[in-house]
């Protein structure tokens, strides 16, 4: 059986689609999978069982990336095409069966929306397949950390989604102080390469407590590192979804975003919102696209309380 799975070019959306992919792997053992996705999330799919071909799909002008994907796939008779991009490619390649993503008719989480593509309710949770190379890279990057560590993601792809750096630093210190939730724990700081400078104030404020992993990991290596963390706290980002998908207790911080649609998914994941109503945040955003006060309603105490509630809850099963 040959399956073509077309998923997102965005990291977070690609991670959220992995539950549906895992369902296909389990439902069709021995199937040969071809996965098309954006270049950034592509490493996350390299260890998927049954993977025959991984096609990174960088955007090209005049939609030439879709033409290239069609050319790569049209020569195969597919038993199943699952197209989460709702593209022409999914319709134009030969296939016995096709399934397309469509916007939900009612509000639901993205994971539920993706599961509905194959009529799955409840939807399968996102999951990642970590290979030996990712484990070895995590060993190298973490430097043999023997104790549980706190992982934080203080950046995002948009400034308006970033909790203030000084609050991240204060939170990390409080969680790792002698009377904190993770006393004496190191703090691993993650950020994408273009966001390294925005994470620097947090690293500098933490001093020798911080392990700087900013810009040093691809998504698969980051996943292998995060799988070993005792807790992850970060802004609404692809990294947040990776942490939740590998089963790490995860807190996602949301200002003007929509946690009911894009919050971290899973029994060990929670979204933390602030005290400022969303309508007010959206009004500020409309007045100033570069507004930097959209996350100010989330206090350090609010996030610390959420962490203290989440981690014992996870330990209790």
From TrEMBL:
Show the CDD domains listed in the entry: GT9_LPS_heptosyltransferase
GO molecular function (one) = ADP-heptose-lipopolysaccharide heptosyltransferase activity
- Name the domain of life this protein comes from: Bacteria
Glycosyltransferase listed as a keyword = yes
Q: Which Pfam families match?
A: Glyco_transf_9
User: Per its UniProt record, what SUPFAM superfamilies does this chain match?
Assistant: UDP-Glycosyltransferase/glycogen phosphorylase
Gene Ontology annotations for the cellular component aspect, listed alphabetically: cytosol
Q: Which UniProt keywords apply?
A: Glycosyltransferase, Plasmid, Transferase
Q: Mention one GO biological process in which this protein takes part, according to its record.
A: lipopolysaccharide core region biosynthetic process
PANTHER family for the chain: ADP-HEPTOSE--LPS HEPTOSYLTRANSFERASE 2, TETRAACYLDISACCHARIDE 4'-KINASE-RELATED
- Protein known as: Glycosyltransferase family 9 protein
């Amino acid at each position: 059986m040959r399956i073509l799975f077309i998923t997102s070019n965005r990291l977070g959306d690609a991670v959220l689609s992995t539950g549906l992919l895992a369902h296909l792997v389990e439902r069709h053992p021995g199937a040969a999978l071809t996965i098309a996705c954006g270049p950034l999330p592509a490493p996350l799919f390299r260890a998927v069982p049954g993977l025959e071909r991984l096609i990174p799909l960088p955007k090209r002008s005049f939609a030439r990336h879709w033409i290239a994907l069609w050319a790569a796939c049209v020569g195969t008779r597919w038993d199943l095409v699952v197209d989460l991009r709702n593209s022409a490619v999914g319709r134009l390649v030969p296939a016995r069966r096709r399934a397309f993503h469509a916007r939900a008719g009612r509000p639901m989480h993205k994971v539920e929306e993706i599961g509905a593509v194959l009529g799955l309710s409840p939807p399968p949770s996102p999951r990642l397949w970590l290979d030996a190379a990712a484990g070895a890279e995590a060993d190298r990057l973490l430097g043999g950390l023997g104790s549980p560590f706190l992982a934080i993601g203080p950046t995002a792809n948009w400034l308006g989604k970033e909790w203030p750096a000084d609050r991240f630093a204060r939170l990390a210190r409080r969680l790792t102080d002698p009377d904190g939730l993770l006393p004496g724990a190191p703090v691993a700081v993650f950020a994408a390469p273009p966001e390294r400078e925005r994470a620097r104030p947090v690293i500098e404020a933490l001093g020798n407590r911080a392990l700087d992993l900013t810009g040093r990991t691809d998504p698969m290596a980051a996943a292998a590192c995060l799988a070993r963390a005792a807790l992850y706290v970060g802004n609404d980002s692809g990294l947040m979804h990776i942490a939740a998908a590998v089963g790490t207790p995860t807190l996602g911080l949301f200002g003007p975003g929509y946690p009911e649609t894009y919050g971290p998914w899973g029994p060990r994941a929670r979204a933390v919102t602030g005290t400022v109503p969303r309508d007010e945040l959206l009004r500020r955003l409309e007045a100033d696209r570069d507004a930097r006060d959209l996350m100010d309603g989330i206090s350090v105490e609010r996030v610390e309380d959420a962490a203290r509630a989440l981690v014992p809850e996870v330990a209790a099963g």
